[in-house]
Amino acid sequence: MALFKGTILKSIILNTHRALTAGIRYASVEVPTDDSPVEMENPFTKERRQCILCKLNITPDYKNYRLLSQFQSPYTGRIYGRHITGLCKAKQTAVEKEITKAQNCAYMPYTYKDKAFLKDPKLFDPENPVRTHRF
Ligand SMILES: [Zn+2]
After folding, report:
1. Which one of 38, 63, 83, 126 has the lowest number of neighbouring Cβ atoms within 10 Å?
2. pTM here?
3. Distance 113 CA to ligand 1 centre (A)
4. CATH 4.10.640.10 fits 52-117, yes or no
């Protein structure tokens, strides 16, 4: 009985080994022998990053003080820097210029954010800037 079990076990092991090696051979046969380079998309290309104003094609204007107030700190009224807003240099300078213009026209306060705009949706997260800040 033990001998019979041993032969069955041996045959099972042999059959699985044959099946595995046959599978490996079969897979190796499928690989194309042609070794020419394959045309493919560059996997290392980075997607072009755009700031939110460029993406939505918005030109900051001093009369649109509701938009401009989103770039102002609610505590001190300071204009957030580029490391917080994530704007490109051109749009950041335009926003700063327009905020100053709006403040001089009395559309916006200098030292605080207008209470009416405190619950507006945030364009960026001032709590997680690229660099640390004190406002
Ligand atoms: Zn931009």
Report:
1. 38
2. 0.63
3. 24
4. yes
